[in-house]
Write a structure and sequence with these properties.
The complex is a heterodimer of chains A (321) and B (654).
Chain A: H1 11-35, H2 42-60, H3 67-85, H4 89-104, H5 108-133, E1 153-156, E2 159-162, H6 180-184, H7 213-228, H8 230-233, H9 265-274, H10 299-313
Antiparallel strand pairs in A: 1-2
Helix pairs in contact in A: 1-2, 2-3, 2-4, 4-5, 7-10, 9-10
Chain B: H1 7-37, H2 50-58, H3 64-67, E1 70-72, E2 79-81, H4 104-138, H5 142-180, H6 182-191, H7 193-215, H8 223-255, H9 270-274, H10 279-307, H11 312-333, H12 336-350, H13 352-359, H14 364-389, H15 396-399, H16 402-417, H17 426-432, H18 446-469, E3 472-474, H19 479-503, H20 509-539, E4 541-543, H21 554-580, E5 585-587, E6 591-592, H22 603-632
Antiparallel strand pairs in B: 1-2, 3-4, 5-6
The chains are: A mainly alpha (321), B mainly alpha (654).
């Protein structure tokens, strides 16, 4: 459906709105047909709505939704439709009628339908069973843990960091004191484009020659990022770097609300330091080729690059105060 | 004075005195334990364990200072004298982990879960009895008062047999601990020694009160004695709640230990050991969970009796009983997600690692299953209420709008159960272009999920309001204004909920957590203001026809059974999640589990054991129901009562 695009940033609400509008249109059509004495039988209305939802999820949403999620959505929507068609006794009787008519074989047509059902349903079940027993050459499903729990402490360059309490030493205000609110106010706009709030102000533009303190550290973090990380994580930190598609899964998309925006800064520090190889057992299957950056960067450089990632994506690290 | 000691008044006086004496005796264990509770840094009641005493004596000639070692509390960071032995460093040997040719952890899991199911049930049902008995006492309608009294009696009768089973299962649980995990249980007992004695005494007190409460029902059925009887239910529930709090302190300690130093040595402050980071959230969550579970089980009992009823009178009675039990259960189900949210917040605050393991990491998929179960509970509740509209004249006015409610519920649930970590084949992962889906990925985070569950809860509240209006039309002068206000209120609350859910993506996580407050406030406002306004409007109302108790579609009763099964399954699941989050620790970061079973089970295996527990519970509770029905056969329902259009008539004797 190229004429109606999914608009980045609004896609989740767009999907729900489109589904809501579709249901409303169905209800209006049904209401009009009922008024005209040509109402759609409840059985077919229910089946039709369910098929519509499945087709919508399969063909409208891009990139494709994995089958496991479509199966969940399909089951829930089937339950919803059951609740609708059996919500009142009259509706339930109306819904059941075509099925009972076929089972009772009240006419020649219904009898033939019953015969067809008696042949097709066992065949379909048999086919399903046969298919499920066929050898498959597909890679197995992986229940990958995207965010494995970090350890309580981590040792980087010989120093132990307690992840629950440690703070980014560069997340400071003009007085050099740790200040999350101060730094949060200086990140890029989170809306589309991720623009700097004031490009002429050294307090907001890390590349301003007069940038000091936090913004200067962000620039230094950016330099480290573009020297080391952007090949995989991309210029826009969206996981679409030059080498990204050499890997499966592709590198993490930091602009997604489900990655660094969900994590404490110390988690990212630990993850960057230890890389894929340092993931704990629960992270299996690890499926991460990120090198342990502690072998290439200093502790300070890791803190700065983490801070840059938050600055650039417009997200705030998770805190609990 | 002479009047007081003579005749009925004298009996009342004796009854009051007796009740107070009994209450004082029951509370005696608390007073006995008070020095330990108030001890601050002082040693526990009974002093340090013998091994510590022996060690101290062996130090002999060393100075006084050397004898008192000071330790630092791992949670409170306060200092206190070391009065306990360190947590044992176990090894995978028969000494620490004696075993049969079976996984000890699964045996313990089953024993624990069964005890918890019954414990929850017998703690919840007396609270229902208390509410229903009081409702009967204050009811001006004598017939209704009798019905409520009979219902409360029916409830407590079921719980009495279950109570014996709870005690038996508790014994089995302790034996399982002692025989399979002696080192761990020994350590836990050494820490909680005074509390465990109080627990045992409270259990005796609970039993005594329960038996007096049950067997005194007929003797104390009128006047002041009835009030005394109802007051006993308060005592009973206070004891039951304290019992549960004490048991919760053990699991709280295992998850978030306090009152001990890094080696697990007890520092003499029993309050610190009890009052761990997660104790209060666990207490609140468990009270609500027990109530919802208890309501579900009683509703299932009523549904079973409804479906097997031989006549219309029985059907009418059990239809009514099922409705009351369901309404009570759901009343506690509605705040349950908020209590769960608080618990998770405290878990994150206590250990980021634990929070991520639960909701973003290893156990995240179990949370998706949990979300699905919560969704099932709310959807089933709504479905039952819509079916119940069918037994009211005028209920059909609302049934035509069911499809819109279904849409909100389904969309809310879809968002609520969308997984953050999606299960997919590598090919699907490649096609999706990364681990996060650009459309659905946003449903996988908390902001959207809060919106989803609040939408579901508000719709459930609206269904309840529908139900209350089923056969009635408000006749107050301001009815039109009231209706407009009510509709506007719900629409605004829904819009606020959606807006906050979207806005949550554009602000820091800690501010986003705060945003749950306006969402919850909106939902609770719908609950309290909406219900209160509706009741006020119905004070003067025109009845379109009576409620035809017993004339409800059998589907509704299957919905009740499903509700109860979902409660049971979810309780088993959440117990497993809560316990699993400790990973390879008996006591988090203090005592390591070195048994061969210190790994996390696969989701499939975990689900199978949970299903076994659910099945086992329902088989045994069916036995309890059967016993309850045996007693009921002595008091048949009068067959002469009118059926349709009347409220159910209870049996007259016990």
């Amino acid at each position: 459906m190229t004429w109606l695009k999914l608009v980045e940033g609004y896609m989740p609400m767009q999907m729900i709105s489109e589904l809501a509008c579709s249901i409303l249109v169905f209800a209006l059509i049904n209401w009009s047909l009922n008024r005209a004495g040509m109402g759609i039988p409840k059985f077919w209305a229910g089946v039709g709505v369910w098929i519509y939802i499945q087709l919508y999820l399969k063909y409208r949403i891009y990139p494709p939704i994995p089958f496991s999620v479509r199966a969940i959505y399909g089951t829930v929507s089937a339950c919803g439709i059951f609740m609708w068609v059996s919500g009142s006794e009259d509706a339930w009787q109306e819904f059941k009628r075509p099925v009972i008519n076929v089972m009772d074989g009240i006419s020649g047509f219904h009898k033939s339908m019953r015969t067809v059902a008696l042949i097709v349903i066992p065949l379909a079940l048999g086919g399903f069973a046969y298919n499920s027993f066929l050898p498959s050459f597909e890679e197995p499903i992986e229940l990958r843990t995207v965010h494995p729990a970090p350890p309580a402490t981590t040792k980087v360059h010989g120093k132990t960091f307690v992840l629950q309490v440690v703070e980014n030493p560069y997340r400071v205000n003009n007085e050099g004191k740790y200040d999350q609110a101060y730094t949060d106010a200086r990140i890029v706009e989170q809306a589309m484009g991720r623009l700097m709030k004031d490009v002429n102000d050294p307090n907001y533009n890390p590349w301003d020659p007069n940038a000091e303190g936090y913004t200067k550290y962000v620039r230094e973090g950016g330099e480290i990022f573009f020297q080391n990380c952007h090949f995989c994580h991309g210029d826009n930190l969206n996981g679409r770097g030059l080498w990204a598609y050499a890997f499966n899964p592709i590198p993490a998309n930091f602009t997604d609300a489900g990655t660094i925006a969900q994590l404490q800064e110390t988690f990212v520090f630990w993850r960057v330091s230890k890389g894929g190889i340092g993931l704990p057992g629960e992270g299996f299957p690890w499926a991460s080729v990120m090198p342990p950056w502690e072998q290439h960067l200093t502790v300070d450089e890791i803190w700065k690059v983490v801070m840059f990632e938050y600055w650039h994506t417009g997200y705030y690290p998770r805190t609990w105060d | 004075m002479g009047r007081l000691t003579s005749g009925r008044a004298g009996k009342k006086f004796l009854a009051v005195t007796g009740l107070f004496a009994m209450g004082a005796m029951l509370l005696l264990p608390i007073f006995v334990a008070l020095p330990a509770l108030a001890g601050g840094g002082a040693p526990a009641a009974g002093g340090p364990p013998p091994d510590v005493v022996a060690a101290q004596e062996a130090e002999g000639a060393e100075g006084e200072e050397a004898k008192v070692e000071i330790g630092r509390d791992v949670y409170y960071k306060t200092e206190g004298p070391v009065v306990g032995a360190p947590a044992p460093k176990t090894q995978d040997t028969a000494e620490f982990y004696p075993r049969y040719n079976f996984e000890s952890r699964v045996l313990l899991w089953v024993a624990n879960q069964q005890h918890l199911y019954y414990g929850s049930f017998v703690l919840a049902v007396p609270i229902f009895c208390m509410c229903i008995e009081f409702a009967g006492l204050v009811s001006k309608d004598k017939e209704m008062a009798k019905k409520y009294d009979q219902l409360a009696y029916d409830f407590i009768k079921i719980s009495l047999t279950a109570y014996s089973l709870t005690a038996i299962l508790g014994g089995i649980l302790i034996f399982t601990f002692l025989t399979l995990y002696p080192a761990f249980f020994g350590y836990l007992s050494s820490i909680f020694r005074p509390v465990m004695h109080i627990y045992a005494l409270m259990f005796v007190a609970e039993s005594g009160t329960l038996y007096i409460y049950y067997y005194g029902w007929d003797k104390m059925k009128e006047g002041m004695l009835k009030w005394l009887h109802a007051s006993m239910s308060v005592v009973l529930n206070v004891i039951g709640t304290v019992l549960m709090f004490l048991a919760n302190s053990w699991i709280g300690f295992m998850m978030s230990p306090a009152g001990v130093d890094e080696q697990g040595r007890y520092l003499g402050n029993i309050w610190h050991v009890l009052h761990t980071a997660l104790w209060n959230p666990l207490n609140v969550h468990r009270i609500l969970g027990n109530m919802a579970f208890g309501g579900g089980v009683v509703a299932a009992y009523a549904a079973y009796r409804f479906l097997s009823a031989k006549n219309d009178e029985e059907r009418a009675h059990y239809d009514w009983m099922g409705y009351i039990a369901m309404a009570l259960g759901v009343a506690f189900l509605i705040p349950l997600p908020f209590a769960g949210y608080w618990l998770m917040r405290e878990v994150y605050a206590y250990r980021q690692q634990m929070g991520i393991t639960l909701m973003g990491g290893l156990l995240a998929w179990l949370f998706i299953i949990q979300a699905t179960m919560i969704g099932i509970l709310f959807l089933t509740t709504n479905y039952y209420l819509w079916q119940a509209l069918g037994r009211m004249t005028g209920g059909e006015r609302f049934q035509r709008y069911i499809k819109y409610f279904v849409f909100i519920l389904v969309v809310g649930l879809l968002v609520f159960i969308t997984p953050h970590t999606i299960v997919m084949t590598p090919a699907e992962l490649k096609a999706m272009g990364g681990q996060q889906h650009p459309v659905l990925g946003n449903y996988g985070v908390m902001s959207a999920k809060n919106g989803g569950i609040n939408a579901i809860i508000m719709t459930t509240i609206a269904s309840f309001i529908w139900y209350q209006r089923g056969n009635r039309v408000p006749a107050v002068k301001w009815a039109k204004f009231g209706n407009i206000f009510l509709i506007t209120f719900f629409v605004v609350a829904h819009l606020n909920n959606i807006w906050v859910a979207c806005y949550g993506y554009f602000i820091p996580a800690n501010v986003r957590i705060g945003l749950s407050v306006p969402q919850v406030a909106g939902t609770l406002s719908c609950l309290f203001i909406g219900s209160a306004l509706n009741l006020a409007m119905l004070k003067q109302s025109r009845e379109l026809g009576p409620i035809r108790w017993g004339q409800i579609a059998p589907r509704s009763q299957y919905a009740l059974i499903m509700l109860a099964t979902a409660f049971t399954w979810m309780m088993g699941l959440m117990g497993y999640i809560r316990s699993s989050v400790r990973l390879f620790w008996h006591v988090n970061e203090i005592m390591r589990d070195n048994s061969p079973w210190a790994y996390t089970h696969t989701i499939g295996f975990g689900a199978n054991v949970i299903s076994f527990n659910v099945l086992f519970f329902w088989i045994t509770i069916m036995f309890v129901f059967w016993l309850g029905a045996l007693g009921a056969k002595k008091a048949p329902v009068p067959a002469t009562q009118p059926v349709p259009g009347t409220a159910p008539q209870p049996a007259t004797g016990h």
